[in-house]
Amino acid sequence: MRPPPPTLLPPLLLLLSGFGAAAPPADSLAQLPAPGNLKVHLYNAQQALSWEPVSLDSDPRPVVYQVQYKYSTSSNWYDVNKEDSKVDCTNLTRTECDFTANSLSEGFPRRFNISLRVRAKLGGLISAWATAPWFEHYRNATIGPPENIRVTPEEGSLIIRLSAPFDVPASEAYFVYYVYYWEKAGDKQLLMLVPQVTDPFESNFITLNDLKPLRVYCFQVQAKLILTKENISRPGHLSNISCSKTAADASVKLQQDILAAATTFLVLSVVVGSCLFLVLKYRGLVKHWFHSPPSIPSQIEEYLKDPAQPILDALDKDSSPKEDTWDSVSVVTFPENEQEGTPQSSWNQNADPSHQPTEGVL
Q1: How far apart are CA 344 and CA 356, in angstroms?
Q2: What residues contact residue 258 under an 8 Å CB cut-off, 6+ apart?
Q3: What digits encode the pLDDT tens for the residues 78-109?
């Protein structure tokens, strides 16, 4: 909302805004009290006006409120309506008018002095105007901490990324950031340590260098608003405490790798030695465990393959005795030897049936 040039305003608008709006009927002032305890809320980009409600015990109808504004460079008051401020605060039933801008081109100019006033209306009754003190957003707003803080551990450093508390035009103002950090020695000493403060950073990308590896560091970030055309700075609130552990550097990583390799080798050696000791001590039991089980007889195995076959036939199939092999035995007597009284016998163990003895067969 920019102050319109007074020379371009129609005479009737000047008359209504400069005189008619501020002159309610005299009898109405005594009958309807003016809103009280006006407060202007300025936090980051937020702009809002609140007040205490007005009511009449004799009239149950709701009271409505009308809000107007003016700049220090003008004597005219203007309604806070959708045409000028994108929000309608001319007939409010609530006790707050929130005119926070959705973009830098909307809302009240942050480098202008602005005054707000509000009055109550009930039917034909109109209260007196209640006026809030002058304010300039850049001078009076509360600056919050940076937003969207993210931390990335590196080798002996921490990288901090953040966003500004709110957007500001580069031609009017900018933010610088300070980081308060310390090494966390313990939970009880967390708030007792004196933090170190970095130089101001204008970038949203901050690196904390020269930190000890594998140590936990805690930090808070503060934003400070600097007005470009004026020698004014507005410090903001500190962010919540965040803690992060730095990563290991190259030497520490090498030591860790060596320690891990040695530990792995030691564990494997203990396991292999224990297994070998148990095998040697209980080798008989181990041999028994790994002994192959007895095989199933062929007759039962064939029966299991064909259960329909009678079990006795299966058992007698290969157990029938085979035909004995007989050899022929012949006794041959020679007459010449008989005469001499020296009997001779010859045993011929020939399996051929064509061989026939000459005399007598036993």
Answers
A1: 18
A2: none
A3: 999 887 777 889 999 999 999 887 776 677 88
